[in-house]
Amino acid sequence: MVTxxxxxxxxxxxxxxxxxxxxxxxxxxxxxxxARLAGPEATRVRHQCTVATDERTCTTCxxxxxxxxxxxxxTLEYVPGQFVEHEYQLEKLACRYCKDGVTTASGPQKILExxxxxxxxxxxxxxSKFGDHLPLTRQPRIYSRDGVAIPVxxxxxxxxxxxxxxxxxVDCLAKRVLEAYDVRTDATGLRVLVPTRPExxxxxxxxxxxxxxxxxxxxxxxxxxxxxxxxxxxxGRRGYVQADAATVFxxxxxxxxxxAIDVGCWAHGRRRFVALEDTDRRVAxxxxxxxxxxxxxxxxxxxxxxxxxxxxLRQERCPAVLDQLGRWVAATVNTEPPAxxxxxxxxxxxxxxxxxxxxxxxxxxxxxxxxxxxQLRTIALGRHNYLFAGSHQAAHRTAVSTVSCTxxxxxxxxxxxxxxxxxxxxxxxxxxxASMSSFPIAGTRRRPTRSPNSRH
Length: 456
Fold this sequence. Notes:
Layout: E1 3-5, E2 10-11, E3 20-28, E4 44-51, E5 73-74, E6 92-94, E7 102-104, H1 119-131, H2 139-144, H3 152-178, E8 182-193, E9 201-211, E10 215-221, H4 230-233, E11 240-242, H5 250-253, E12 261-263, H6 266-274, H7 284-303, H8 307-335, H9 341-351, H10 353-356, H11 370-375, H12 377-386, H13 392-404
Parallel strand pairs: 8-11, 11-12
Antiparallel strand pairs: 1-2, 1-5, 3-4, 6-7, 8-9, 9-10
Helix pairs in contact: 1-13, 3-13, 6-7, 6-9, 7-8, 8-9
């Protein structure tokens, strides 16, 4: 083991026993970030190392040395996790005279009925699959190194049970998303095993909804149609909805399913020009103008502006850029052949012009929908490893479990800590109301205000 000090020297821990005396001073769980590799949430053990007694005098004059400070060096160690089997011996009492029944001591409450898995074991398996994207088929070999043999079928039942218990809490989170000032949405595909189909699989859709940049909810639909995806979830909404230009969202804006206000995504518009960079040099100009809009947003972030201040900054700097871009787009649409890729990219901005400029007058809206797309990476990484969901019901549970293991947007809060009180339907929490404190969104940044009629 090698440790490096600020002087770039190499310290041999073996010398600690001879020349210095080491003693553990304290264990700090919430200490400031001292080490470069460990974050503020890491557990720290602080050691106080003192010079040995025979080295505390000056070698020249023989006088006692005095303290002039300390040097700090760090060593990062890993303490492997382990399974611990708890054996509960339940005392049984009976009356030797009446012989009227047996009284048995109460044992530990079970998270899942007829299951020996404790809360920490369930958390390990669920977070490993949906947070670390480790399929259940790979986990038994890992756990066998600790002397524990858990069949894949057993873990599958545990994962399903956890999803069913956490579902009421996820429903509470979905209500918060619906009440948000602005909702972002996007979708990605997820293959589902369907033995009755000729190809034995079906491509389902995993919808993601982000409310006020803090709450994330996933919803699975067997198809990519709006009737099974965003329409029922956002039915009756009147607030802002940010999405791409897919026609599946049209009914949310025209009053058919909802009367939401559409907010465009500049990232989608920019990608169409970026895709032509290698074949058409003319796209450099619109890309440069769109980049200026992003610079305004970076300036607002650097200044830590509030939404009203951000609105003022946008109104001062964005209209001129949008005017130049509008003139170029109009000229391109009028002169380019309609079938050309450049004309299609320009026509996208024309068709979405009102939705794309919505952000200028509302500082709480974002320039793009990248935040929602980043949340979908969790689904994309998972399906790359476990390939498909076992059934449509399993896909629904995947949506629920992914929410419980998703870090909060813009804050990086850790996945929820699963304990007996985290499961609203478990015996340990039968009298407890579903609480949002078990989820990473608790305590994160909130929007300053909400739309008065964001839902109905």
